Amino acid sequence: MATSSPPVIWACPPWRLWGARKTGRAETMATVLLVGAGNMGFAMLKGWAKDGGLRLMVVDPTEALRDRAAAVGAEVYADVAEVPRETDMIVLAVKPQVMDKVAPPYAEFPGAVMSVAAGVGVARLRGLVGERPIVRVMPNTPAAIGQGMSVGYAEGADDTLRALVERLTGVVGETAWIEDEGLMDAVTAISGSGPAYVFHFIECLASAGEKLGLAPELALQLARQTVAGAGALAREAGEAPGVLREQVTSPGGTTAAALAVLRETGALERLVNEAAEAARDRGRELG
């Protein structure tokens, strides 16, 4: 594992200064450095850009990714050596496989660290960026449209730092916290990877529509909007999913016939369980 430089010591941690700068109306300026502007990083960045009270800096070696980050108002840098050391929060949004190479230079920057890399635990992060508050967050890609789900685990974080994390995650969707870091791989399996499962179900439903004779465009429209509408209803109705399922299932009707196939011998539930376990186990391997 790469060794980190000694941590920077500051008289007053910048996240506490951020807390002191809060007003009765809204939070004031906080400086956030995003390391890695790939799909997940950029999804979050687009939400942060709407906050209006964040100074956003992005470092990424890929010009195209820097260009799109600049387009939403971020200051962009190709290399860590170019970045001003004026950070309240450093957000590590790089792949777990390159974390050991990418993270150590940021040990010399002030601020807390928030990592969104699957499978990379707090102990490993501390070995890379030094002794400071570290927050692990597992977001998901619907953050790009403000409909994300982010789950955080904070070690050594006070209420002020948690508030900053919730500010960053709140503008891109809902936020929840866990107190046991060991559950983060399960979170990754359900909400982190979950959008891909839903997208695959949309593909399967649209394909089924085509096989029943529907035009591809119509089949995709029906599948996409049905899943979107059902998800919105599940969130807004205040009823358990099972109750909503029963409400649309008339005895002896078409839905009942379809559900009898989906639920036969518990095959669908078993597949979902096995998929989630595979994702969880892979997360553990990455850590």
UniProtKB/TrEMBL annotation:
Alphabetically ordered keywords of this record: Amino-acid biosynthesis, Cytoplasm, NADP, Oxidoreductase, Proline biosynthesis
Pathway it works in: Amino-acid biosynthesis; L-proline biosynthesis; L-proline from L-glutamate 5-semialdehyde: step 1/1
Positions of the Pyrroline-5-carboxylate reductase dimerisation domain: 181-286
First-listed, main subcellular location of the protein, grouped into a coarse class: cytoplasm
Enzyme class per UniProt: oxidoreductase
This enzyme's EC code(s): 1.5.1.2
InterPro entries cross-referenced by the UniProt entry: 6-PGluconate_DH-like_C_sf, NAD(P)-bd_dom_sf, P5C_Rdtase_cat_N, P5CR_dimer, Pyrroline-COOH_reductase
UniProt xrefs under Pfam families: F420_oxidored, P5CR_dimer
Catalytic activities: L-proline + NADP(+) = (S)-1-pyrroline-5-carboxylate + NADPH + 2 H(+); L-proline + NAD(+) = (S)-1-pyrroline-5-carboxylate + NADH + 2 H(+)
Keyword Lyase listed: no
One cellular component (GO) term of this entry: cytoplasm
Subcellular location: Cytoplasm
Amino-acid positions noted as binding NADP(+) in the UniProt annotation, renumbered to this chain: A93, V94, K95, P96
GO molecular function: pyrroline-5-carboxylate reductase activity
Pyrroline-5-carboxylate reductase catalytic N-terminal domain boundaries: 33-106
Alphabetical GO biological process terms: L-proline biosynthetic process
Family: Belongs to the pyrroline-5-carboxylate reductase family.
Role summary: Catalyzes the reduction of 1-pyrroline-5-carboxylate (PCA) to L-proline.
PANTHER family: PYRROLINE-5-CARBOXYLATE REDUCTASE, PYRROLINE-5-CARBOXYLATE REDUCTASE 3
Record-given protein name: Pyrroline-5-carboxylate reductase
Gene: proC
